[in-house]
Design goal:
This protein is α+β, with helices and mostly antiparallel strands and about 140 residues long. It is about 40% helix and about 15% strand. The chain has a three-stranded mixed β-sheet with strand order 1-2-3. The radius of gyration is 16 Å and the shape is flat.
């Protein structure tokens, strides 16, 4: 692949009260994700595969407000969302209101690749995840 670039960020807001050790841990995770993406791009993985791979890493880490580290709703539950877009094919997939899916970005990818839809929410997204269980790992309810 020629002429690629990659950027990784860990959210829109930085808490100025975050302890220095926690800030350093976040930087280390972002560096690991960046290096993971660079390695995948160097091995000729497609851009969309690299995006999903790197976002899955962020979703798996509890220090980030995604996936495992999602902010809680007013009721103390997790409701996650994700979207993914493929500019080359002008395709997209998005999901929201998820409570049981481990990696929402992968479900969004499946919506894009395996369904006629571009967006599924709440019970529709959860039902689709159950249909795709052989491809996507779901948390137990």
């Amino acid at each position: 692949m020629v002429g690629w670039a990659i950027a990784v960020h860990g959210g829109a807001v930085v808490d100025p009260n975050l302890p220095t050790e926690r800030q350093e841990q976040a930087k280390q995770l972002l560096t690991r994700c960046l290096n993971l993406g660079i390695s995948a791009l160097r091995s000729s993985a497609s851009a969309i595969d690299v995006v999903e791979l790197v976002v899955r890493e962020l979703e798996t880490d509890p220090r980030f407000n995604s996936g495992r580290g999602s902010a809680l709703t007013e009721k103390g539950t997790v409701e996650m969302e994700a979207s993914i877009m493929d500019g080359v094919g002008r395709r997209c997939g998005a999901v929201s209101g998820l409570t049981t899916v481990k990696n929402p970005v992968s479900l969004a990818r499946l919506v894009m690749d395996q369904s006629p839809h571009s967006y599924l929410a709440f019970s529709g997204a959860e039902d689709f995840a159950k249909q795709m269980v052989t491809t996507l790992f779901c948390l137990s309810t």
